[in-house]
Amino acid sequence: MTAMTVQWVQWEWGVKMSHDLNSDWETIDSKKLKRVFKFKGFLKTMSFVNAVAWEANRQMHHPDMEVTFNTCTINITTHDEGNTLTDKDYKLAKGIDSLE
Fold first, then answer.
1. Contact 49, 71 (CB under 8 A)
2. Distance (Å, whole) CA 64 – CA 99
3. What is the mean pLDDT of the chain?
4. Domain positions in the chain
5. Is 5 a residue whose pLDDT tops 70?
6. What's the pLDDT tens digit per position in 48-74?
7. How far apart are CA 56 and CA 33, in angstroms?
8. Dihedral (CA of 10, 16, 17, 23) sign
9. Strands, E, within the chain: which ranges?
10. For residue 13, pLDDT beyond 60
11. How many other CB atoms are found less than 10 A from the CB of residue 16?
């Protein structure tokens, strides 16, 4: 299998996996998944952040999160695979989707 074939298979696989996610997820530079969650206030935001932390720990795959008063921006990539998208990222995104 050539490098070009491997890239195509990874791209096709990522496209198929992304169809299982909420449409609010964005793929950034084919390297990470990003989604912004908005809430009515600080406590709802923090409750969501804690739920994400539990899910991430359960899966042993931890996202980068930016938290403000009423938003949580989540970026998911696989750092130990060279900051690229892997099945771990799609699986975590799907788990986060289930928290809504």
1. no
2. 17
3. 87
4. 3-97
5. no
6. 999 999 999 999 999 999 999 999 999
7. 14
8. positive
9. 26-28, 32-38, 64-67, 71-76
10. no
11. 10
